[in-house]
Design goal:
Oligomer: heterodimer
CATH superfamily of the largest domain in chain B: Type I PLP-dependent aspartate aminotransferase-like (Major domain)
Strand order of the largest sheet of chain A: 2-8-7-6-5-3-4
CATH superfamily of the largest domain in chain A: Type I PLP-dependent aspartate aminotransferase-like (Major domain)
CATH architecture of the largest domain in chain A: 3-Layer(aba) Sandwich
Strand order of the largest sheet of chain B: 1-7-6-5-4-2-3
Strand content of chain A: 5-15%
Order of helices and strands of chain A: HHEHHHEHEHEHEHEEEEEHHEEHEEHEH
Largest interface: A-B, 195 and 195 residues
Structural class of chain A: alpha/beta
Bound molecules: pyridoxal-5'-phosphate
Radius of gyration of chain B: 25 Å
Helix content of chain A: 25-40%
CATH topology of the largest domain in chain A: Aspartate Aminotransferase, domain 2
Number of helices of chain A: 14
CATH topology of the largest domain in chain B: Aspartate Aminotransferase, domain 2
CATH architecture of the largest domain in chain B: 3-Layer(aba) Sandwich
């Protein structure tokens, strides 16, 4: 035992460390603890590197997306969120000593509200899927109605998370169709399914097919008073009409595209914005502006009476820890890119989509034209060979892509057999497309 | 040591106008050819700032933010320990950070191996049988756990009658909130005069309506409830499940475990016990472990291994489904894996002992000045009351932060008046503790009026929280 420990025990009139655990009965002591003994930092990092080397990522051309995107992250973003003042702090319970994080989060709320065209944004949710599920719960808190209309094109993963989140509420999920030709939402079907019990209608842009949905702007006229929940790709908003412009009530998104590494899908950033009148029903933390004793502008967590630590079982959500650091990353990203940067990233993505479609059109045995609607980042492609086969063979050519359609949209997989998703971002260039083309040509 | 935090009149990022200089590779296509006209965005407001000014802006803001790396941060229940830098290095290895969740499983064997090993370590630490790493924070872990209770009761045909979740009054707010989210009625029971579960009160509310009892042990008072085995018997006899809030795991790693105590479901807070950085509020990570009979209810996928090959296993037959997009906060899982590997069984036990030693040492000293209710023997944290000093916990907290250390958690748990909850963790040295105690004692030398003027040395003075809620301003325009 170190001298310090002995001295501390002595100060308490204790003889040994065991005295500190005299309240844990002997029959409750752990008898074995089968975890390897500790190792040095050097050995640890070597072991971690060896494990990392078992992953294959370097030297591959990647066409993977469907919610998580391989975008360019300015080095400044990583550098800023690595600052230990941000990284190793916690929820700003003492606002006077935490103004840095509070102002950063206030700016995040502002940047995202502007991007979404919405009135307000909370200080972050866990991830896109749970943000969507929480939006459904929030809509129920607002109007107490029990039916939720969701698109047939919603990834099954999103549906599953919604189902978990509403398990205790007795809500009913009803699917509305898409138009076979365009791939857009089927407004006629939606309007048939609208009734007085509908709490909310979930729309997506781009939708589960990766299509920019031109019908989305007609959602309000179709759904009447039902609340509109819109799930969007935040980068697409550099070019595309934001949810606020089609009278959306709650807008949600996965924020990973905004300067966050893929990291096998976590940590991510759940984005949630809403109309002003819904603020008090919203989940999560929220930062407000105020003044300090000297009359200087200052920021503080507000509307805490919605939250679990005060309202307990009546709280709007159980969220305590959120994704603050990821929110700072998104703010730094949006600030660095600015309006022109985000617009160009979106433009280049859409332009690369055009290249991707042309690539598939140019090789026999592939059909990238399943729909007439325009795609943004994600494209379903039908092939002669199975998706599984395509994926394996591409991998041999050092190309990662071909996410099986049925892994995301199993209920529609009968209609779209042998179909796989390929995705682009601003990163892709001519070399990527020609490599993809020559690989595809080899195994048609 | 006097402390002066940076105090900039830092403008909002939108009010800095040095001009965007970010470069994106050029595009030759016209917008009209690429996106539908009807969806074209007309106006977009984003800052117009040079990258260098963005860096300066956030660097200055960071200097107005207190953190573990700056000084003692004994925020009770939050386990603000040293976040080792080796975990930062490992988390930045691009083989980990650049993997996509939907890529071929054969190409992510290294990441799956890390997750598999972490699953094994966490099970061993808790003596539970099966685990999911999916939940993204402690609260989401609680919600997942209570959904498992729900699905299990449904299967055995008892969901209709078992509608109540019992929770002690000392519990964290997320516990009742999570239980209610999963559709249960919350029944609160008082603590006894020792700060432990009031056995009679528990007996009185346990019935065939009880779905689960949610507790943490040691509890939020830092007290180990030695009746836990008896409690477990009572709860199980009533046909209910016992849920363990693992936020206080730092007190028992290597000593005892929820499995031994008789719990059915456990969540961990990796950002507490296993030192993943708290990130100014998150990300967290809240894996959930269960006893064997609940294995089939876990969210999918979990990571399994066959013949040395790791894979995402979706086979759980009665799964509650999913609570998050993918497989958990991988980057946090990786850091927790690194923490456990570095410390090993010997180091983890050593950490537990030091954390408990530190809490008791501080409790012992502070008991001379403040009222520390309930048993003097603490585990990882202590809760004191400032009531008898005539000074408010809130005001003392503001004195404390003025000295360059973080205040304790205040006004939680709800059952002690004017309370401060202090969790030093194993990272505090004796000098840190002595200085912290001295600061708390010194706070009492100021009169109430002086204390009300605190803080003086920080990025801002006392903030008007009422105004923030009344004149709601949640964004810059
Ligand atoms: C006792 C206790 N339970 C649960 C939680 C919730 O954990 P999280 O913030 O990760 O959601 C906390 C966190 O502060 C806690 O202290």
């Amino acid at each position: 035992m170190s001298d310090e420990r002995s001295a501390m025990l002595e100060a308490m009139n204790m003889k040994s460390v065991d005295d500190l655990f005299s309240d844990v009965p002997a029959n409750m002591r752990k008898k074995s603890f089968r975890i390897p003994k500790g190792i040095s930092e050097y050995d640890l990092i070597e072991e971690a590197r060896k494990n990392a080397a078992m992953n294959r990522y370097e030297g591959y051309r990647k066409f993977l997306g469907c919610g998580i995107y391989d975008r360019i992250i300015p080095s400044s973003v990583d550098s800023l969120i690595s600052r230990s003042e941000f990284l190793t702090s916690y929820t700003p319970y003492q606002p006077e000593i935490s103004q840095g994080m509070l102002q950063s989060l206030f700016e995040y709320q502002s940047l995202i509200s502007d991007l979404m065209g919405m009135d307000a944004t909370n200080a972050s949710m866990y991830d896109g899927y749970s943000a969507l599920a929480e939006a459904v719960r929030m809509a129920f808190r607002i109007n107490g109605k029990t039916e939720v209309l969701i698109p047939e094109t919603l990834y099954s993963g999103k549906v599953k998370v919604i189902e978990s989140y509403i398990m205790g509420l007795g809500l009913k999920l009803v699917r509305y169709r898409y138009e076979k030709g365009s791939g857009f939402m089927d407004l006629e079907d939606l309007s048939k399914k609208i009734n007085d019990n509908v709490s909310s209608v979930v729309v997506e842009n781009p939708n589960g097919f990766g299509i920019l949905d031109e019908n989305i702007t007609r959602t309000r006229e179709t759904v009447g008073n039902a609340l509109i929940i819109s799930y969007v790709d935040p980068v697409s908003l550099g070019l595309i009409k934001p949810p606020g412009e089609y009278d959306c009530d709650i807008a949600v998104a996965e924020g990973q595209s905004l300067g966050i590494h893929k990291s096998l899908g976590g940590p991510l950033l759940g984005i949630m914005s809403f109309k002003k009148e819904h603020v008090r029903k919203s989940p999560g933390r929220i930062i407000g502006e105020s003044v300090d004793a000297d009359g200087r502008k200052a920021y503080v967590m507000t509307l805490q009476t919605r939250e679990q630590h005060i309202r307990r079982e009546k709280a709007m959500s159980n969220i305590c820890s959120n994704q603050a650091l990821m929110a700072v990353a998104a703010s730094a990203y949006l600030s660095i890119l600015g309006k022109s940067g985000l617009r160009n990233v979106a433009l280049r993505t859409a332009s690369n989509m055009k290249r991707l479609i042309e690539t598939f059109r140019s090789v026999k045995g592939y059909n990238p034209d399943l729909f007439s609607g325009r795609h943004f980042s994600d494209l379903p492609v039908q092939s002669r060979i199975s998706s599984e086969d395509l994926r394996k063979r591409l991998l041999e050519k050092n190309i990662q892509g071909a996410i099986p359609f049925d892994s995301l949209l199993p209920d529609l997989s009968r209609t779209y057999g042998n179909t796989s998703f390929f995705s682009v971002t601003e990163k892709h260039n001519a070399d990527d497309f020609s490599a993809l083309k020559s690989a595809l040509e080899e195994f048609k | 040591m006097t402390y002066h935090q940076a105090k900039y009149d830092e403008p909002l990022i939108k009010d800095i106008h040095s001009g965007t200089d970010y470069k994106v590779p050029a595009v030759s296509d016209k917008e009209e050819e690429l996106i539908p006209r009807s969806l074209a965005r007309q106006t977009l407001n984003l800052p117009d700032v040079a990258e260098f000014d963005v860096v300066r802006h956030y660097t200055r803001l960071s200097q107005m933010n207190f953190s573990v790396d700056i000084g003692t941060y004994p925020l009770g229940s939050c386990t603000m320990k040293f976040n080792p830098k080796f975990a930062d290095s490992i988390s930045q290895i691009s083989g980990f950070s650049e993997t996509h969740p939907l890529q071929d499983q054969g190409s992510i064997q290294g990441s799956l191996k890390i997750m598999y090993e972490l699953q094994e370590y966490l099970k061993e630490i808790s003596d539970m049988d099966a685990i999911t790493l999916q939940p993204l924070a402690g609260a989401q872990g609680e919600f997942t756990g209570i959904l498992i209770v729900r699905k299990y009761l449904e299967d055995i045909g008892e969901l209709g009658k078992r509608t109540e979740v019992i929770i002690p009054d000392s519990a964290h707010g997320t516990n009742p909130a999570s239980a209610a989210m999963a559709g249960f009625d919350v029944v609160e029971i008082p603590s006894d005069s020792n700060g432990m579960v009031d056995i009679e009160a528990l007996e009185a509310v346990l019935s065939d309506r009880t779905a689960a009892f949610m507790i943490t042990n040691p509890n939020t008072l830092g007290i180990f409830d030695r009746n836990i085995v008896k409690i477990s018997e009572m709860v199980h006899k009533a046909g209910a499940l016992l849920y363990y809030d693992g936020a206080n795991f730092n007190a028992i790693v290597g000593i005892t475990s929820p499995g031994i105590m008789g719990f059915d479901i456990v969540h961990y807070n990796l950002h507490k016990t296993f030192a993943t950085p708290h990130g100014g509020g998150g990300p967290g990570s809240g894996p959930v472990a269960v006893k064997a009979y609940l294995k089939e209810y876990l969210p999918v996928p979990v990571v399994s291994m066959e013949n040395g090959r790791y894979f995402l296993d979706y086979s759980a037959k009665k799964t509650i489904g999913k609570v998050a997009s993918y497989y958990g906060a991988f980057n946090m899982l990786l850091r927790a894996w690194a923490f456990i590997r570095f410390h090993g069984s010997d180091g983890l036990l050593n950490n537990t002992q030091k954390a408990v030693l530190n809490a008791n040492y501080l409790s012992n000293r502070l008991s001379k000045t403040f009222t520390i209710p309930f048993s003097p023997l603490k585990k990882h944290e202590l809760v004191l009351s400032t009531e008898k000093t005539g000074k408010r916990a809130l005001d003392i907290g503001k004195y404390i932060i003025d000295q360059g250390v973080h205040a304790p958690t205040v006004y939680f748990p709800l059952i002690v008046h004017e309370d401060m909850m202090i969790e030093p963790t194993e990272s505090a040295s004796r000098d840190d503790l002595d200085r912290y105690a001295m600061i708390m004692e010194d706070a009492l030398k100021e009169d109430v009026e002086q204390l009300k003027k605190r803080p003086l040395n920080l990025g801002s003075r006392r903030i008007d929280e009422v105004k923030a809620a009344r004149d709601l301003k949640l964004k810059w325009n």
